[in-house]
Design goal:
The radius of gyration is 17 Å and the shape is globular. Strands 1, 2, 3, 4, 5, 6, 7, 8 and 9 form a 9-stranded antiparallel sheet that branches. Helix content is 7%, strand content 25%. The longest helix has 12 residues. The protein is mainly β. The protein is built from 2 helices and 9 strands.
């Protein structure tokens, strides 16, 4: 499926599936078009740990940065017969049931009638907490929104109901203006699966979603 021509949004640093949230690349991202944070999160420790109140010679130390697994939750935990269908311009799944938000955010799109997507579903929300604060997530295709634009959500909020419509769902990072998948940006045209999609799949895996079986 193809969506609208999107505005560019920086991609969160590529994560490794084996760790909850891998260290971001040293090279800073380009600043997103709408002023979203240039980097999605500070570098987290591989394993969360307590930080002493003071360092050597009594110097104060910064608080540890949160990992994705400590802030976000598996958004597909309520889907029955979940099938991982592949990774292309987003991460594709089959099944039916409620889909939750990853974490705290604000809904920026919520429609069941977007002609750019099979099934018509197009829901986006901007994350307002955690290591990917400021980035926008999309959920598309065989979904019916249960939220409205402007609504505040948490990881306990059902944002859509997934139905068996033959197309499944696609989810991933959205463009900065929330008009399309980030992988559809003009400068993102390249190998499939897209880097942004692989990045989002790694985030889902860190939250307990099984890996997609193959690229499509």
């Amino acid at each position: 499926a193809t969506g609208h021509a999107p505005a560019q949004q920086a991609t969160p640093a590529v994560r490794q599936a084996a760790t909850p949230h891998a260290t971001p690349a040293a090279t800073p991202h380009a600043t997103p078009a709408t002023g979203q944070a240039a980097t999605p999160h500070a570098t987290p420790a591989a394993t969360p740990h307590a930080t002493p109140a003071t360092g050597p010679e009594g110097q104060p130390q910064a608080e540890p940065q949160p990992t994705a697994a400590s802030v976000y939750r598996n958004p597909l935990r309520g889907v029955s017969d979940l099938v991982m269908e592949g990774v292309d311009q987003g991460v594709d799944f089959g099944g039916a049931g409620p889909v939750y938000a990853l974490g705290d955010g604000v809904i920026t799109n919520a429609t069941a009638d977007d002609s750019a997507w099979p099934g018509g579903g197009w829901i986006t929300y901007r994350l307002t907490a955690g290591p990917d604060t400021g980035f926008t997530v999309y959920l598309a295709e065989d979904v019916t929104p249960t939220v409205q634009v402007g609504q505040t959500v948490t990881s306990s909020t059902v944002i859509a109901n997934m139905f068996n419509g033959g197309d499944g769902i696609q989810t991933g990072w959205a463009s900065s203006d929330a008009s399309a998948a980030q992988s559809q940006a003009a400068d993102a045209n390249g190998p499939v699966p897209a880097i942004a999609s692989i990045n989002f799949e790694a985030l889902l895996q860190s939250l307990g979603v099984p890996a997609a079986s193959s690229a499509s």
